[in-house]
């Protein structure tokens, strides 16, 4: 464990940290046969060279398109294009959907997931912002696909899952795909200036952070039935599930808070700041571990911890929200939160030997396994959080 304390609020620290994460992936990530390798152990060795998950494939594109836009290294643009090509030529199927999981180039999980398609939209938007012209068509195509197969006009929300023929819609409804669609639509707005994307992003924020949250005492529940009523029983025996855990997710409350604050910058709305504060404050009050530090994965409706693991993305999304709240309100407690989250992460989540962040730790901060970057991770959350803080600081580098 490293206890030395950098200046976490320094733009120079954040920029150097981003470059250190890029450096972990740099020599080993590009797969000559297509796409990117995704399964890295702590030391950087790859334990699965054949699997490509849609979310991971798309997140790498986001990483390298953003890195190129901000730092201008030509190979990052080439990698973003390489990854976008793999999405559209490898993951994309003949009926327009993008396969959730490929193994040795073959589809091995046939579910069609709104969550995964949200990241395709985010990847395309990131490429458009980076000046990759071919991405514009992909952006509008995936948006229309989502409109046709997942948008529920009566509910003002996206549904979750279809079968590979696109004819059968699963009755499950969830907030996670909608949260990432809110993020992707914001990015699409920033990339194109097309107001339909900002309008829809606002609609999703209103629906989930305010309207549906009213069913669960102002917090955002993960799971709903097909009528968009809170489903308190879904996965009740799986509070540790990676994608659909039972319980309140402190990291999702703060991730929504961050999105609300970004929305407020794009188009001010008197609802967003107080709601962001409410979501963030409750998440920190219930999710921060007073004994060991760090923020837990899951909190039960009674306020007790139901999943005590500490995930990398929970810490990083929360420090980004804390900084935005500090920047917008000037309230010193948010600055203090930002620093204490970073300090715990610096001590327990950042790998000071090999680079990047560990994916998950035990409640006391000790190691769970040696799989630093399994399918889907890519450190998109950690670099994205640093970039978001820099944006809020006004310290992003000039766009190329």
TrEMBL record:
For this protein, the record's Pfam families field holds: GlcNAc_2-epim (PF07221)
User: What enzyme category does the UniProt record give?
Assistant: isomerase
Which branch of life, at top level?
Bacteria
Q: Which UniProt keywords apply?
A: Isomerase
One Gene Ontology BP term is: carbohydrate metabolic process
EC number, as in UniProt? 5.3.1.31
Does the entry feature the keyword Isomerase, yes or no? yes
Query: InterPro entries, alphabetically?
Result: 6-hairpin_glycosidase_sf, 6hp_glycosidase-like_sf, AGE/CE
Q: Could you state a single Gene Ontology molecular function term?
A: sulfoquinovose isomerase activity
PANTHER family noted in UniProt: N-ACYLGLUCOSAMINE-2-EPIMERASE
Family, according to the entry, reads as follows:
Belongs to the N-acylglucosamine 2-epimerase family.
Protein name in the entry: Sulfoquinovose isomerase
């Amino acid at each position: 464990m490293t206890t030395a304390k950098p200046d976490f609020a320094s733009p120079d620290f954040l920029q150097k940290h981003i470059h250190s994460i890029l450096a972990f992936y740099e020599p080993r990530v590009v797969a000559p046969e297509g796409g990117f390798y995704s399964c890295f152990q702590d030391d950087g060795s790859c334990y699965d060279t054949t699997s490509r998950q849609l979310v991971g494939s798309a997140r790498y594109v986001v990483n390298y398109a953003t890195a190129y836009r901000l730092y201008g290294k030509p190979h990052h643009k080439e990698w973003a294009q390489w990854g976008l090509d793999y999405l559209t030529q490898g993951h994309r199927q003949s009926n327009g959907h993008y396969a959730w999981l490929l193994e040795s180039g073959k589809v091995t999980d046939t579910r069609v997931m709104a969550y995964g398609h949200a990241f395709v939209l985010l990847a395309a938007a990131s490429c458009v912002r980076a000046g990759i012209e071919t991405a514009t068509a992909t952006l509008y195509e995936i948006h229309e696909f989502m409109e046709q197969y997942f948008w529920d006009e009566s509910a003002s929300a996206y549904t979750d899952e279809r079968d590979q023929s696109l004819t059968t819609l699963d009755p499950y409804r969830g907030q996670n795909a909608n949260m990432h669609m809110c993020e992707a639509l914001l990015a699409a707005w920033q990339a194109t200036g097309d107001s339909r994307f900002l309008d829809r992003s606002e609609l999703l924020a209103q629906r989930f952070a305010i309207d549906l949250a009213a069913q669960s005492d102002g917090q955002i529940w993960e799971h709903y039935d097909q009528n968009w009523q809170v489903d308190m029983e879904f996965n009740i025996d799986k509070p540790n599930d990676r994608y659909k855990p039972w319980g309140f997710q402190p990291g999702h409350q703060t991730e929504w808070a961050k999105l609300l604050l970004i929305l407020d910058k794009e188009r001010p709305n008197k609802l967003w700041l107080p709601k962001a504060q409410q979501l963030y404050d409750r998440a920190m009050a219930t999710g921060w571990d007073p004994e060991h530090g760090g923020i837990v994965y899951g909190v039960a409706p009674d306020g007790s911890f139901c999943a005590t693991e500490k995930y990398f993305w929970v810490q990083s999304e929360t420090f980004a929200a804390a900084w935005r709240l500090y920047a917008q309100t000037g309230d010193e407690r948010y600055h203090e939160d930002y620093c204490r989250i970073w300090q715990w992460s610096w001590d327990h989540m950042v790998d000071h030997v090999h680079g990047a962040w560990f994916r998950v730790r035990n409640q006391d901060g000790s190691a769970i396994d040696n799989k630093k970057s399994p399918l889907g991770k890519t450190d998109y959350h950690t670099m994205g959080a640093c970039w978001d803080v820099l944006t809020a600081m006004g310290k992003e580098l000039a766009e190329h």
